[in-house]
């Protein structure tokens, strides 16, 4: 079983709609969870961190964490063409100082 | 951008030659990381450092070595470059549990 799994996409969402990105992880003791956005040819950019069960909102972004189901999601409200990118889910097991990355989901916002 | 720079940003080299990539940070972060990113594999950790002269291997360390003689610089060396090491290389620092990335180096081995 892969440690961090994401659907590779592409996920196509109409402009103005809600984009929902999902991620599952295998290590039950994981404690820290991250979403990165990566534009083509650029480096990953941290957009959300979440450490507790529930929702965390930042502007148009909401991260959701369910540790019992080992599931993390990212919602993007009012999607814009500029949100078109690859979104990487990442997990820190807190056993060491390493983060494990998923392979990413490509998101395409349709104008 | 967490004050991280990488050099060179692009490099083409021949098989069998040694190559050194440099990561430089200006904010005195203790932890630094080298990743490679390839289609179908995502980001994979090569080596990391938890202080001056303190380094450890990641999941894809074969063919790579690192050095950290100063807090601000973390060097990645490909001892004898191979075509399989053609990739985009990212340096990162950690701040708490969060990691922040440099702009990357695109390396092509011909």
Explain the overall architecture.
The complex is a heterodimer of chains A (111) and B (110). In chain A, 0% of the residues lie in helices and 54% in strands. Chain A is globular. In chain A, strands 2, 4, 5, 9, 10 and 11 form a six-stranded mixed β-sheet that branches. The model of chain A has no long low-confidence stretch (mean pLDDT 94). In chain B, the strands form two sheets. In chain B, strands 2, 4, 5, 6, 9, 10 and 11 form a seven-stranded mixed β-sheet that branches. In chain B, a hairpin with a 2-residue loop joins strand 9 and strand 10. At the A-B interface, strand 5 and strand 9 of A face strand 5 and strand 10 of B.
On the 0 to 100 scale, the average pLDDT of chain B is: 95
Low-confidence sequence ranges of chain A:
none
Number of helices of chain B: 0
- Unreliable segments of chain B (pLDDT under 50, ≥5 consecutive)? none
SSE topology sketch:
The complex is a heterodimer of chains A (111) and B (110).
Chain A: E1 4-5, E2 11-14, E3 19-25, E4 32-38, E5 45-50, E6 54-58, E7 61-66, E8 71-76, E9 85-92, E10 99-101, E11 105-110
Parallel strand pairs in A: 2-11
Antiparallel strand pairs in A: 1-3, 3-8, 4-5, 4-9, 6-7, 7-8, 9-10, 9-11
Chain B: E1 4-7, E2 10-13, E3 19-25, E4 32-38, E5 42-51, E6 54-57, E7 64-70, E8 73-78, E9 87-95, E10 98-101, E11 105-109
Parallel strand pairs in B: 2-11
Antiparallel strand pairs in B: 1-3, 3-8, 4-5, 4-9, 5-6, 7-8, 9-10, 9-11
Question: Can you give keywords for this protein?
Answer:
heterodimer; A: 111 residues; mainly beta; six-stranded mixed sheet; five-stranded antiparallel sheet; 0% helix; B: 110 residues; seven-stranded mixed sheet; four-stranded antiparallel sheet; globular
């Amino acid at each position: 079983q892969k440690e961090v799994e994401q659907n590779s996409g592409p996920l196509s969402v109409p402009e103005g709609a809600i984009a929902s990105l999902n991620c599952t992880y295998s290590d039950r003791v994981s404690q820290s969870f991250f979403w990165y956005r990566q534009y083509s040819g650029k480096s990953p950019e941290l957009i959300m961190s979440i450490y507790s069960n529930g929702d965390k909102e930042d502007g148009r972004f909401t991260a959701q964490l369910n540790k019992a189901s080992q599931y993390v999601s990212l919602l993007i409200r009012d999607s814009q063409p500029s949100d078109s990118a690859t979104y990487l889910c990442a997990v820190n097991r807190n056993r060491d100082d390493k983060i494990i990355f998923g392979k990413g989901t490509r998101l395409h916002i349709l104008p | 951008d967490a004050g991280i720079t990488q050099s060179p940003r692009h490099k083409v080299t021949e098989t069998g030659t040694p190559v050194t990539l440099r990561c430089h940070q200006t904010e005195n972060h203790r932890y630094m990381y080298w990743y490679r990113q390839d289609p179908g594999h995502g980001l994979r950790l090569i080596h990391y450092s938890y202080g001056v002269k303190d380094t450890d291997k990641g999941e894809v360390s074969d063919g790579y070595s690192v050095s950290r003689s100063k807090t601000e610089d973390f060097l990645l060396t490909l001892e004898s470059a191979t075509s399989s090491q053609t990739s985009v290389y990212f340096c990162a620092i950690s701040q708490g549990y969060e990691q922040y990335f440099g702009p990357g180096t695109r390396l092509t081995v011909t």
